[in-house]
TrEMBL record:
Keywords of this entry: DNA-binding, Transcription, Transcription regulation
UniProt GO BP: negative regulation of DNA-templated transcription
Pfam family, one: Penicillinase_R
Name of the featured protein: Penicillinase repressor
Secreted among keywords: no
Gene source species: Novipirellula aureliae
GO MF assignments: DNA binding
Superkingdom of the organism of origin: Bacteria
Length: 51
């Protein structure tokens, strides 16, 4: 189920944006690795937010 429209990113979206801001660009695998360094995640979480 999609979340309501918001002008603020979710916590997960913000984590992805922080990786992109730090690296400038990143593959899905690089984002996954960056996220998994901070918490447990799986490929579907990363793909859902990046895909």
């Amino acid at each position: 189920m999609a979340r309501p429209v918001s002008s603020q990113p979710t916590e997960a979206e913000l984590a992805i944006l922080k990786i992109l801001w730090k690296q400038g660009q990143a593959t899905t695998r690089e984002i996954y690795n960056g996220l998994s360094a901070d918490r447990e995640t799986n490929d579907s979480t990363t793909v859902h937010h990046c895909g």
